[in-house]
Design a protein that fits this description.
The protein is of the alpha/beta class and about 375 residues long. The chain is built from 16 helices and eleven strands. It has a seven-stranded parallel β-sheet with strand order 4-3-2-1-5-6-7, with helices on both faces. Strands 9-8-10-11 form a four-stranded mixed β-sheet, with helices on one face. Strand 3, helix 3 and strand 4 form a beta-alpha-beta unit. The mean pLDDT is about 95. It binds NADPH dihydro-nicotinamide-adenine-dinucleotide phosphate (NDP) and magnesium ion.
Length: about 375
């Protein structure tokens, strides 16, 4: 029985983790659940899975939880999530969105726990210190993001395997068939119509700007100890190949399947073994697979993400924070699509260079958020 601490249980990934647990309840057990404020769905989850520990960060929402199982202890407040990482769990599944994932990931590693990581912002902002902690503690950091899981599979589940190049695939997001002129006036409601994947709002907007692919390139550099020059991203509109690895002899390995997070989620818990999922078997005779280059003019966020990583130190953290705020503003129709890139650039120009540490990342994250809000003239 694998005992799982699940952080971010109410989100798109979190709910799929719970479906996986329910599908194989003889193999998996939930020992703790955490979320931010979605108390109604959280309350249902807690009563169904009866964890030892339940954590809802927002106190106002936590008060509204009227019923909890007798075996469950409920925590709330800013650091409540850390209580979900119990001594008892075998693995911490991090499905929290955004920079908020960093502190729990570092805490889990510090406690010597294996981490299944869906949250990509953690590695983008703090990859240097996270990977150092992973090496020092000798724990496993298991990729869940579909591209990084695909690479993990192509490398026979060996994060240290040799390769020539990693090739990440990108669907192109909701606006892939529009020109730059057409895109500039399109609202978030349009950007949320992802052609292939059903995900949380923030990541769906990141797919439309292709910032998501920039985050994933950085994530791959950290996970697979690769320089930027060894990680490529290409457009693959069908989202059937989830990523590829090119080797020294010219061979390329690819992982294929219908676009569903069920496989990477479950595999993170069971690899090298594979169990049944509810995903349909792929009929390749019904598919044509196509590929293309990323248009950097149409997708400036992608180039900015890579630039921030090349700048080093705390710049990727600043890029990520600026993007989180800008995406929030775009979702509220307060800014336009290409303002997201402009605001990221504004943060990168104005942030001061600092060596990466847990404290400097918190400082950088806060400052970059403030720079973006001040530029637009909003408080939060
Ligand atoms: P969602 O927005 O659907 O869910 C986010 C989850 O995190 C919710 O449970 C939310 O709680 C919780 N949360 C947010 N902020 C906090 C906080 N400060 N403290 C505690 N909990 C918090 O996101 P997704 O499930 O789509 O994505 C999760 C992560 O996985 C992201 O980093 C994303 O990039 C990555 N990812 C997602 C994929 C997908 O298919 N969705 C694919 C690959 C990677 P509440 O509901 O209460 O707000
Ligand atoms: Mg992905």
């Amino acid at each position: 029985m694998i005992k799982i601490a699940l952080l971010g249980s109410t989100g798109s990934i979190g709910r799929q983790v719970l479906s996986t647990v329910a599908r194989h309840s003889d193999k998996f057990k939930i020992v703790s659940l955490s979320a931010n404020s979605s108390y109604e769905i959280f309350s249902k989850q807690v009563n169904e899975f009866k964890p030892q520990v339940a954590c809802l960060t927002d106190p106002v929402s936590a008060i509204k939880i009227t019923e909890i199982p007798s075996e469950t202890t409920l925590y709330t407040g800013e650091n409540a999530t850390l209580h979900a990482i119990t001594e008892d769990c075998d693995i911490v599944f991090v499905a929290i969105s955004g920079f908020a994932g960093l502190a729990p990931v570092l805490h889990a590693i510090e406690m010597g726990k294996d981490v299944a990581l869906a949250n990509k912002e953690t590695l983008v902002a703090g990859g240097e210190i996270v990977m150092k902690a992973v090496r020092e503690k000798g724990v496993r950091l298991i990729p869940v993001d579909s591209e990084h899981s695909a690479i993990f599979q192509c490398l026979n589940f060996n994060l240290n395997a040799e390769f020539k190049k990693l090739i990440l695939t990108a669907s192109g997001g909701a606006f892939r068939n529009f020109s730059k002129i057409e895109i500039q006036n399109l609202k978030a409601s349009e950007a949320l119509k992802h052609p292939n994947w059903l995900m949380g709002k923030k990541i769906t907007i990141d797919c439309a700007t292709l910032l998501n692919k920039g985050l994933e390139v950085i994530e791959a550099c950290h996970l697979y100890s690769a320089p930027l020059s060894k990680v490529e991203a290409i457009i693959h509109p069908e989202s059937i190949i989830h990523s590829m690895v090119e080797f020294e002899d010219g061979a390329i390995m690819a992982q294929l399947g219908y676009p569903s997070m069920e496989i990477p989620i479950q595999l993170a818990l069971t690899y090298p073994n594979r169990l049944k999922t509810d995903v349909s078997f792929l009929d390749l005779t019904q598919k044509s697979l196509t590929f293309g280059k990323i248009d950097l003019d149409k997708y400036p966020c992608f180039a900015l993400a890579l630039k921030s990583y090349e700048m080093g130190d705390n710049y990727a953290c600043a890029m990520n924070a600026a993007n989180e705020v800008a995406v929030g503003l775009y979702l509220q129709d307060k800014i336009g699509f290409y303002d997201i890139a402009d605001l990221i650039e504004h943060a990168l120009v104005n942030i001061e260079r600092i060596k990466v540490s847990k404290e400097s990342l918190l400082y950088t994250d806060g400052l970059a958020r403030r720079l973006v809000r001040e530029k637009i003239g909003v408080k939060s």
